[in-house]
Specification:
With 119 residues, the protein is an alpha/beta fold. It contains four helices and four strands; from the N terminus they run βαβαβαβα. The chain has a four-stranded parallel β-sheet with strand order 3-2-1-4, sandwiched between helices. It starts with 13 loop residues before the first strand and ends with a helix.
Length: 119
């Protein structure tokens, strides 16, 4: 018999979720907020969808802020500083950001494509 699954109480926790404007990141941000956490909703280009995530979190009684940063262009440090300032600290980081990179055969991968994927 397996042990029961327990859900942590995240009240008073402050979370930054990168790539939270859509998909998995948006779902994680909503789930963390449902568990009581305050959430920094990060986006790169999808401000309107990030604002939708914020509104959904707040409608459910949670607290959220929306922050923009281009993580591929070196914006990670500033994002963390901004999130910590907005939430009065950080307890949890969910590093979910990604990008819609073209899938190409290995032999056709250019140096530029590889650099963007790795960034």
């Amino acid at each position: 018999m397996s042990a029961p699954i327990t859900v942590p109480d995240l009240r008073e926790k402050r979370c930054l979720v990168t790539g939270a404007s859509s998909g998995i990141g948006a779902a994680v941000a909503a789930a963390l907020a449902a568990l009581g956490a305050a959430v920094a909703v990060h986006y790169n280009t999808g401000r309107s969808t990030a604002e939708s995530v914020r509104r959904a979190v707040e409608a459910a009684g949670g607290r959220a802020v929306v922050l923009q940063a281009d993580l591929a262009a070196g914006g990670a440090t500033d994002l963390v500083v901004q999130a910590a300032a907005a939430l009065k600290g950080l307890d949890i980081l969910i590093n979910n950001a990604g990008g819609p990179f073209a899938r190409v055969p290995f032999g056709e991968t250019t140096d530029d494509h590889l650099a963007r994927v790795m960034a």
